[in-house]
Specification:
The protein folds into 2 domains: 49 residues, no CATH class; 116 residues, Nuclear Transport Factor 2, Chain: A, CATH 3.10.450.50. By secondary structure, it is α+β, with helices and mostly antiparallel strands. The strands form 2 sheets. A 6-stranded mixed beta sheet has the order 4-3-8-7-6-5, covered by helices on one side. A two-stranded antiparallel ribbon has the order 1-2. Helices cover 34% and strands 34% of the residues. The protein is globular and about 45 Å long.
C-alpha cells in the first residue's frame, strides 16, 4: 500500500476526499512513496513541487480577476512579450494573436464590443506550467438580454507569466 503526502501535509492513499484524489492523480509522478523514515525530506520536496503546481493557477486567477475588471493593462502584466492567444471564434479554428501588441489590441477590441463581459470560473486545475480552466462567459446582447457561453482555456505559464492561452467553447457565440 503506497501512501502519498499531499498539500495539507497528511498522508493518504488518494481516497480520503475528492481533492486528494485529484492531487494523487496530478502529482503521482512527482512524489516518492511516503514512509515514516523519509516523511520530512519527501514532504519538503513535495511542498516545493506543489508550490510550482499551484503557481500557474495563481497567475491565471490573477489574469481572470483583471479580465473581470476589464483591466487590459493588468492583464498584459501577466503575459509574456511573445505570448500566443488562440480565441475560439470564428469556428472551427478560431483566430490566433501572437505577441503582446496583438494580444493587447485583441482584448481592447473585445471589451469595447462587450462592455459587460464577465468570466465565472467553474473549475481550475494546475499541472506544473500548464493550467486548465473551465469557465462560463457572460455578457449582455444588443437587446440587453443576458447571454452566456461555456468553455475551457488551456494555459502555459512560464516565469509567472502566461505564454500561451488556447480557448475552446461549447456552442456558438451569438451577440444578438
Amino acid at each position: 500500500m503506497k501512501l502519498y503526502e499531499h498539500k495539507n501535509g497528511l498522508a493518504c492513499e488518494g481516497n480520503c476526499s475528492e481533492l486528494c484524489k485529484w492531487a494523487a492523480i496530478i502529482i503521482i509522478g512527482l512524489v516518492q512513496p511516503y514512509t515514516a523514515e523519509n516523511s520530512s525530506a519527501k514532504g519538503a520536496i513535495l511542498k516545493m513541487k506543489m508550490s510550482r503546481l499551484e503557481s500557474s493557477q495563481r497567475v491565471v486567477l490573477a489574469f481572470n480577476q483583471a479580465f473581470n475588471l476589464h483591466d487590459v493593462v493588468g492583464m498584459m502584466r501577466l503575459v509574456s512579450d511573445d505570448c500566443i492567444v488562440e480565441n475560439y471564434a470564428p469556428a472551427p479554428d478560431g483566430t490566433t494573436y501572437s505577441g503582446k501588441a496583438a494580444v493587447t489590441r485583441f482584448w481592447k477590441d473585445f471589451f469595447y464590443g462587450s462592455p459587460q463581459a464577465h468570466i465565472e470560473i467553474e473549475q481550475i486545475l494546475g499541472f506544473g506550467f500548464r493550467c486548465v480552466m473551465r469557465w462560463r462567459y457572460e455578457w449582455l446582447d444588443i437587446a440587453g438580454n443576458k447571454r452566456y457561453l461555456r468553455g475551457v482555456d488551456i494555459y502555459k505559464v512560464s516565469d509567472n507569466v502566461i505564454c500561451e492561452q488556447y480557448s475552446y467553447a461549447k456552442g456558438s457565440l451569438q451577440m444578438v
